[in-house]
Here is the input.
Amino acid sequence: MLIYGWSCKRHPDRSPNLITENKTQSPREWAIEHFGCAELNDLRRIDRVITIGEAMAASPGKSLPQIFAHPYDLKAAYTFFRHPEATPDNLQAGHRELVLCEMEKPGRYLMIADTSEVLCTKTGEIIGLGPVGASKDKQIGFHLHSVLVVRWP
Here is the structure.
């Protein structure tokens, strides 16, 4: 088993040092590793995103109301996601840094990509969304481009 650490370039004092290879992680360890360096200005928000990530990792595929048994926790998650700082770029910053650091290591990497159209069923104009599909039905939404990087042996 190979164990190595990393440091959060933006916040060295928050470096989780939990990155492992060939080791099973608890949902908490995984959440700290991937969200501990989220680009949020308040440490309490980083604690909240780690808590949400841990809960989601422990219950994959479930909705927030199914994940959180207590109304307080559910309300805290919704409040967190409504905060202007809780953008995908800010929340994924630590994860992206982690992946880029891993990809600097020698080896072969398989990058699996997919683009999906995410449709919005709400009518009317929504800032940031545009026409998707053939747009014959004036559907609006956005294109989601995901990439999964796997180190090839």
Observations:
- Residues 1-7, 14-20 have pLDDT under 50 and may be disordered.
